Fold this sequence. Notes:
This protein is an alpha+beta fold. The protein has helices spanning 16-27, 138-155; strands at 34-53, 58-77, 83-104, 109-133, 159-169. Helices cover 18% and strands 57% of the residues. The protein has a five-stranded antiparallel β-sheet, covered by helices on one side. A hairpin with a 4-residue loop joins strand 1 (34-53) and strand 2. It is elongated, with a radius of gyration of 20 Å.
Amino acid sequence: HEKCLMRNMNSKHFCSVCQENNWMQFFGKIAAGISIDLLAIETQVMHASYRKFFGNSFNMSLGLGYRVVKTFMELSEETTGSRIEMKTESSSVVAQAAIGNQWYWFDGFYLGIDWIGLLAPLTSGYKAEVSTEGTVSTIFDELKADSVDLAKDLGGTTSYSLLVLSLGWAF
């Protein structure tokens, strides 16, 4: 779970537990005879931050960033052979904050750990695209509306992190 996006802002993936929770509400309306053929989630986070040191290594960082969460799903209805593709993209300008320690050695090499942190959306935007192939049932119309709700929810979600390790070189 430590590499989950919900705990680690630098991660690009959800753990299996969080991924299941994210989709359970969304898939609650899927009826028998509809199968999920493909499900993909991609996350990108970029941020610039300022670290204020208190003492030798203890620090607090504050910054601004940009987060993008993309989803792609293919569904099919077994009785009619109909298919639907759903794509969502949520983007957010986020505030970043973390508390941690950072130690420096020779020639600027450092080892750091953020004990706890968060990415909180300041603004967000979203889009959802749905395309169908064949005759679709009314459940697909409901899923189309739900895809917009999913995109909106993902854009407005605050991410938390625990124990983020960083290695690097500073000049």
